[in-house]
Amino acid sequence: MTSYDIVIVGGGPAGLAAAVSAKKAGTDSILIIERDKELGGILNQCIHNGFGLHTFKEELTGPEYAYRFIEQVYDLGIEYKLDTMVMDISHDKVVTAMNRTEGMFQIQAGAVILAMGCRERPRGALNIPGYRPAGIYSAGTAQRLVNMEGYMPGREVVILGSGDIGLIMARRMTFEGATVKVVAELMPFSGGLKRNIVQCLDDYGIPLKLSHTVVDIEGKERVKAVTIAEVGPDMKPIPGTEERYTCDTLLLSTGLIPENELSRGAGVEMNAVTSGPVVNEILETSIPGVFACGNVLHVHDLVDYVSEEATRAGENAAKYVQNGCKDEKEGNDIKLVATEGARYTVPCTVNVSRMDENLTVRFRVGAVFKDSYVSVYFDDERVQHRKKRIMAPGEMEQIILQKKKLADYPDLKTITVKIEAE
Amino acid sequence: MYDVIIIGAGVTGCAVARELSRYKVNVCVLDKEEDVCSGTSKANSAIVHAGFDAPTGSLMARFNVRGNEMMDDFARDLDIPFKRNGAMVVCIHESEKDGLKDLYDRGIANGVKGLEILDREQALEKEPNLTENVVAALYAPTSGIICPFMLNIAMAENANVNGVDFFFNTEVEKLTPATCEKCGQPIWKIRTNNGEYKAKYVINAAGVYADVFHNMVSEKKIHITPRRGDYCLLDKTAGGHVSHTIFPQPTKFGKGVLVSPTIHGNLIVGPTAIDIENREGINTTAEGINDLIGKAGENVRNLPIRQVITSFAGLRAHEDHHEFVIGEVEDAPHFIDCAGIESPGLSSSPAIGEYVGQMLKEKMGLEEKENWIGTRKGILNPANLSIEERNELIKKEPAYGRIICRCEMVTEGEIIDAIHRPLGARSLDGVKRRTRAGMGRCQAGFCSPRTMEIINRELGIPMEKITKLGGDSKIVLERTKGGA
Amino acid sequence: MEKRNLTCIGCPMGCQITVEVEGEEVFSVTGNTCAIGDKYARQEVTHPERTVTSTVAVTGGEKDRCSVKTKGNIPKEKIFACMDAIDHVKVAAPVRIGDVVIENVCGTGVDVVATKNVDAA
Known about the structure:
The complex is a heterotrimer of chains A (422), B (484) and C (121).
Chain A: E1 2-9, H1 13-24, E2 30-33, E3 49-51, H2 53-56, E4 60-61, H3 62-75, E5 79-81, E6 85-89, E7 94-99, E8 103-114, E9 118-120, E10 136-138, H4 139-149, E11 151-152, E12 156-160, H5 164-175, E13 179-185, H6 194-201, E14 208-210, E15 212-218, E16 225-230, E17 243-246, E18 249-252, E19 256-258, H7 261-266, E20 290-292, H8 303-322, E21 333-339, E22 342-346, E23 349-351, E24 358-365, E25 369-378, E26 381-391, E27 397-402, H9 403-407, E28 414-420
Parallel strand pairs in A: 1-2, 1-8, 2-5, 8-20, 10-18, 12-13, 12-18, 13-14, 21-28
Antiparallel strand pairs in A: 3-4, 6-7, 7-8, 9-19, 15-16, 16-17, 21-23, 22-24, 24-27, 25-26, 25-28
Chain B: E1 2-7, H1 11-20, E2 27-30, E3 47-48, H2 59-78, E4 82-83, E5 87-91, H3 97-110, E6 116-119, H4 120-126, E7 136-140, E8 144-146, H5 148-161, E9 165-167, E10 172-179, E11 186-192, E12 195-204, H6 210-217, E13 224-234, E14 245-248, E15 258-261, E16 267-270, E17 274-275, H7 286-296, E18 308-319, E19 325-329, E20 332-339, H8 345-364, H9 387-396, E21 403-405, E22 410-411, H10 412-420, H11 428-435, H12 448-459, E23 478-479
Parallel strand pairs in B: 1-2, 1-12, 2-9, 5-14, 12-20
Antiparallel strand pairs in B: 3-8, 4-8, 5-7, 6-7, 10-11, 11-12, 13-16, 13-17, 13-18, 15-16, 19-20, 21-22
Chain C: E1 2-7, E2 16-22, E3 25-30, H1 35-46, E4 49-50, E5 53-59, E6 65-70, E7 74-75, H2 79-87, E8 90-92, E9 100-102, E10 112-114
Parallel strand pairs in C: 5-8
Antiparallel strand pairs in C: 1-2, 2-3, 4-7, 5-6, 6-10, 9-10
């Protein structure tokens, strides 16, 4: 069996950044396995700009951002396989993959970095009633058809869900001559960035209807009309509020789900809130030597954070293999708990002996909070209390834990992150 | 002029077609849709019922029990997966235990083998996720699960290989009786949107439209109501929630909402029973789905309903007397009904085929072909091969090394096979029903652009003309800006 | 004097800002909670600008579309004129990131450049 020190599953933004950092950290034997015909992952279809402000201090389009990393992969001579599907990852890090030229093959990895990204929630998962004709696409599928294949999926469009991909596609379809009639959002707030609401919807006079959902789809062969209705506080449609839109296309932008079939198959412990693996302070899953980063770990809104997280995963994986494929740590793991408005944290545990000087803990809130505080408790003692003018579920939040400070709490069991009114 | 024209390429029509393909007889099948298995046959519970449900002495009981018996050989010969996972009818009220006993007695009278009445403990031991409220259950070990698409497609392919013609997108508009100029026997003129066909015999296997054709030719009217059934299909991670097919006790509306593993490892919940007017009304409704979810929970605990990956609806061809109408129509010679084929229609289909085939053999004095091919190989599923075998295959056919549908792990090789085999797929749904590409948890979000490229390449159909399910169901409409 | 209502894009607050403006002259900005909002509003009512991204047709390439962007912002009212110009251009492969596809699009002084490499077929 062939072996590599590090096998990276996925050649999108997370996998690329992880590969580059692992290589720079001194590990040479690295293989990226990518299922598509080119590196770059979802960024290849995200042709809009706005990527990379944090990382490169300039606004790039998705393909340009990806290429900054792809270039480094080329320059550093990192190996990669395209058009190759990972079929299985075993608990002892044997990666089984398949492609047209090599058939099915197995690789013994010293460390594995999970970087498979996420997928969109399909119509079926939403139980939207009505017919099941052609013309219903997830926003990302439509984005691929338009931006990569060069085909228009429709001319008159209704969009359900105000996630960023849906908003971006509203503008994109408009540019290509389609009419976007309405964007309906189930929640009383949008999960998309304000900038996208203004520049993708308001600029083109596309109405955004909050607290609305699709209650009927007409058309046996191709979509003919979509009916939306207002929902009450119970999220149920309110009779009498129905509005019917004739259209030939319904795009869905209703959420992203980390794609963890392989992780589950390997026996990695999962977090029910994020649908991603449970990881510790070095982004290592419950299986030693298996790391996770990017949208497979938790759905991010900025690719810059994906790159940053993946860079750490790459460095940590390199350290792990350089250490003879052993975890080295001292003392106990401290549990990180998200509660009262905070939905989850990544990582879920911290071991002080192994953490960086400053550890970024990312989390999301479950509702919109105005003029509230992000509080951090070390057991029962409040140690951080930072006022935020606004926090919304669509935007990832973070706190920083300092190793120096944690050293003062040798018996600490739990770090709690919560949102407080005062 | 055909000897026999079958209207409808669903399970019934194709079962009859396959049976007739044994004989030296000229047969064709007409269907208004673009593919086989596009009506009632494609949206049902995918169960091979044991046969305890239908009234003793009815055609339903007879064909169900016989169809069930035939299914092992049938599935083996046609290379389709079939599993006898057993069914349980769950009784949750002491007062209704008598009903369970009645069902048991009826099953015995119908000739169903292996029936047992289980007490609460036995039932829970067999199926730990049954509701706490279970007081007893009827256990039917011969009940099975099957893929209705594969059954339907396999029968059609096998019939086609043995010489039966299929004409799709061909909608029958009018049936006129006539007399054969040569032999003086009654024949039928069949006007369609694709020209006129003539046949000595017509088999009416038109599902929810069977009454329309029957009533065109007969004064003794029948009436079929499209009875809609909504379903939810759950992710494979939920597929093991129950291992048997779990039924409530039946009511006058039918067998009720079942919960069952599917042959492919998903969990299916359904159907509702809603009588409608529209014979094309396969839209789900919020009330239907909510009703379903409520009822399914009555017999199975902790149903992981959040794992739903799709919901859909099918129409049962419910005849007013809830009975199959099979046989030559009295006042329309050479016109043979297979009407009112609702549940247990799928289970009964091999037996209906056998019966109608036998009937025509006798009526027409048919002789068997010497070279009839009774078996058919399905699309190779590389997942069933060892790594070595798989690599041999990929060396010969590299397309088997490329995964197109990542949820169901379907390779390009399987899709190419589905396109080029007899009566091959021409649409995304056609590929889906043959290979399962697009049937998984992402519901074709990932694979549809790739499957379209394969259809485009293999069949030369322009991207803008590729459909989901024929007709006007185009996936993309035109190129983006920038010219061709 | 004209009153214009805007949603600030500076942060998730999305302040509803009202601007009083006449021609190029801004008289007042209200509703914002910070300086970012003030700056955004003044720019947005006097010289709104956007970056346009799309794809152009490619001939002789491994694919027949290449993604492009305006290298900088262009006036908002020129967006559809810019899209029309993009609609009428074909570039020959190979294309490299940064290659100029349209010079000085619609007289804006801004070039349309490729954002993706497309190799020759």
